[in-house]
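user: can you give me the structure for this one chain? tokens are fine.
assistant: on it. calling the predictor now.
[tool input]
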Amino acid sequence: MNRATPRLRALAALPFVLALAVHLLLFARWRDELPAELATHFSVEGYADGWTGPTTYALVSTALLLGLAAGWTAFVRRRYLWAAWATAGFAGGLLVQLLRANRVDEFEVVVFSPGMDLGIALVVAVVAGAAGWALGSLVPEEPAQEPLDGPGDGPRLPLAAGEAVGWSKDTGSRALTVLAVLALAAAPVTLLVATWPGALLGLLGLVVGVPGLALARVRVTVDRHGLTVRSALVPRPRVRVPLDGVEGASVREIDAIGDFGGWGYRVRAHRTGVVLRSGEALVVRRGSGREFAVTVPDARTAAALLNALVERHGKV
């Protein structure tokens, strides 16, 4: 798996820093020409119907760009560096266009031209994305790490004939727990106070929060039945791989974003997984040729026991 180098992360943050600098410089330069309340929300026709104070606007726009920078810096890969630059270009372009639209005389109506302003922001995004693509081709990522165990030499525990053994461990994700709790807390409030388009966000909070909380902490068990991964809070969801379906088990370092594109129950080509963090994972090779991975501490013991149980099962 490839990991981002410090130089690559710096290049991912750079366009957002540039966009923020340009935006704040223009905000300071045009401050005397801006109204006491900035128009920040517009109707379909482009007329302002929502306003924000200058200080709040500056704080929110800064937080937006810094939040995007933090996200891209944490999860960037070389092949997606262009997307980070395009995102910064689009967001920065829209913010600058918003400031420009607010530079009107006292008795003029603030109008945002959706077609023209979005078009300009898209052009900035394309130019910035091209710059990011060119820079990405010059910055190598760190070489892929080798699995801790090769495909045919997974660890094994010595087992006596008829010996009953088992292994179980709980593991969880604080980040997933916090996100799920926030989604569930916001859902009823949004459903009660929002109109029907906004209420869809409340429903989305339930859809994301319920399974997110169920998978935020799981129990991984290896015993005579095979491998079982289930929620530590409720009986379902549950994933079970019986001994008959296991060809072997090994330990591997998993990058949650690079290998599986995120956290939770993940599905990728030829592999699935319950991924709650980056790091050590138990990887099971199934008879179908697919792999199932679960990130859990002490994965080597789990793999060794599972291999021993599969070996003994095959001799019965």
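assistant: here you go. Helices lie at 6-29, 54-75, 81-102, 114-136, 174-193, 196-215, 256-260, 299-315. Residues 143-147 have pLDDT under 50 and may be disordered.
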